[in-house]
Amino acid sequence: MTILSVSNLAKQFNNTYAVKDLAYQFTPHQCIALIGPNGAGKTTTLQMIAGLLQPTSGEIIFDKHKSIDRRTLIGYLPQQPVFYSWMTGSEFLVYSGQLGGLTKTASRKRSAELLDITGISEAKNKRIGNYSGGMKQRLGIAQAIIHQPKLLMLDEPVSSLDPIGRREVLTLLEQLKTEMTVLFSTHILSDADEISDELILLRKGEMIESGKMKDLRQKYQTTKITLQFLENQAFYQKKVAALPHVTRTLLERDTVQVIATNIETARQEILQQAVDEKWPLLAFKLEQATLEEMFMKAVNDA
Amino acid sequence: MEDILHSINWAVVAPLIIIQVILVIVALIDWTKAKNTNGPKWLWFIIIIFLNIIGPILYFLFGRRQQ
Amino acid sequence: MMKVLFKKEVLENWRNKKWIWVPLVFILLAIMDPITNYYLPDILESVGGLEGGAVIELPTFSPADAIMMSVSQYSTLGVLVIVLLSMGIISGERKSGVIELVLVKPVSYTKFVLAKWLSLLLLVFAAFIIGMMASWYYTNILYGEITFSMLLAVIFYYGLWLLFVCTVSIFFNTVTQSPGIVAFATIGTTAGISLVTSLLGIRLAWSPTNLSVYIQELLVTGDVSSELMYTTIISIVLIALILLASIYRFNRTFIRRSQ
């Protein structure tokens, strides 16, 4: 069962494609992460589905609802939402609801509910001009779901938030999944990994991988070695990268991540060299890596 | 000069003055409430007070931050 | 839907105090010249009396002249105020990005433009009509009688010119995201039409900028000339076309807008 199908979607700006040949079937009540580095075409994709941007080619079809304006079925939160700063939070929500097709009474009732759910009811009668960034983000989510859309789309909803705010938003999205399909973009793998059921990986406007998280985890399961040195992580990263069986290394905080074709041989090589050259090795860990290799590939090649 | 002050019918001229005063007051109320303006806030105070008639209008058109 | 969009505009104009200052400014523009011109002889006499010298020939003004003083203030400063207060009505919302949250909802692009247009007209016409009433009041007590029906005629015919200016401003609002360019283009367009009209003279007799010329004739003769009739028809057609062009532009630009 699908709620929305996108096929051959493309957007051309001047002579370059921001999005090319995108195709995906969206299932109801799933949380789908649209992931990719900056400039991969995430925002363009969301704006096209939202109807803010006309695709150069391709189709966006809501099943069973072909004849009506698809904006009725969509809630959208841009990356940096801008509001009418002279309105109060409550006024803006009621207005959004009315634009979404609710009557004034219905919109007022639903606004009150959403102000509670998003935790900004105390500030409902304050001008939005006085809201903090976090409050605006919550108001943004509230306006996106006020007309009970079938598909909620959020552009980088957690990237600008602090850890607590991020946690709150992710929890809220998990709850919303029971009522609608959630599609959100992010450039951080762990956000996607945490709450999404499906994933679409974009690189330079092209979908290079997609599917259920469960299947992807299996497909990309590899073993990786995490190394930590007393000092000079970058220097040893180069040394490790030069070893014959190592395919890829990545410096992450103060550890060196190693992925190899043959993990057993690579392990031997690393340990041998560490002993020979007296490397100041602090930690050596073998781990199951799942989606990271896939994501690293996309990011590194971008 | 006194002749002219006597010859003017103040009932006729009063609205002209009253309207200007209201404009200045409304502009000042808005100016007081405004968190920030386009350009330095104190400058707008001077413009509203000292530029006869057009001061408040300039403030409403260019001084207020809209969005 | 139209009502929701329209009400938001009216509320916004109340919150940003346009409903207070625009009518006040229009009253000022309307009554300033009739009052100063009325007292000008006294002022000059008192100043000139001290010098004891030159005799200044002052024209005497008819009631029609007095009404035209207000109209000519509107043609310059009034138009300027209209252009400046409407320059960001749509373009400003596009520039700031707030329009995104409106247009992701199932809002008709056509109704969006119409609501903006109507709300601008409501404000401008309220201010203009109040201003003309004030002008009429002063004209009657200082210069002599103008009938109420004549006042209505002036409001109707000159209102067409202001309607034209408002519509041109809305059109440029749908073309660009920069309020400054909207103001510049609107003033440029109206000034350009005036210039071309005066250069071509008789060949452009039905240009909307001639409305004020024929209104003056109307005030003197009391008859609606055929030129005024045709100019009215041409103006209405032009306004309708510009409005349609704005709606078309907005539907197209917004959807095809690049990032």
How would you characterize this protein structure?
The complex is a heterotrimer of chains A (302), B (67) and C (259). Chain A has helices at 42-50, 89-99, 104-117, 133-145, 163-176, 189-195, 213-219, 233-241, 263-276, 292-301; strands at residues 4-13, 16-26, 31-35, 57-62, 74-77, 151-155, 181-186, 198-203, 206-212, 222-229, 246-252, 255-260, 281-289. In chain A, helix 2 (89-99) crosses helix 3 (104-117) and helix 2 (89-99) packs parallel to helix 4 (133-145). With 302 residues, chain A is of the alpha/beta class. The mean pLDDT of chain A is 88. Chain B is mostly helical and 67 residues long. Chain B contains four helices and no strands. In chain B, helix 2 runs antiparallel to helix 3 (41-50) and helix 3 runs antiparallel to helix 4. Chain B starts with a helix and ends with a helix. The mean pLDDT of chain B is 85. The two termini of chain C are 28 Å apart. Helix content of chain C is 81%, strand content 0%. Chain C has helices at 2-15, 18-51, 63-86, 91-96, 98-103, 109-142, 148-175, 179-200, 211-221, 226-256. The radius of gyration of chain C is 21 Å and the shape is globular. Chain C is mostly helical. Chains B and C meet through helix 1, helix 2 and helix 4 of B and helix 2, helix 3, helix 4 and helix 6 of C.
Features:
heterotrimer, A: 302 residues, alpha/beta, Rossmann fold, Alpha-Beta Plaits, 2 domains, 6-stranded mixed β-sheet, 4-stranded antiparallel β-sheet, 10 helices, 13 strands, 36% helix, 30% strand, elongated, C: 259 residues, mainly alpha, 81% helix, globular
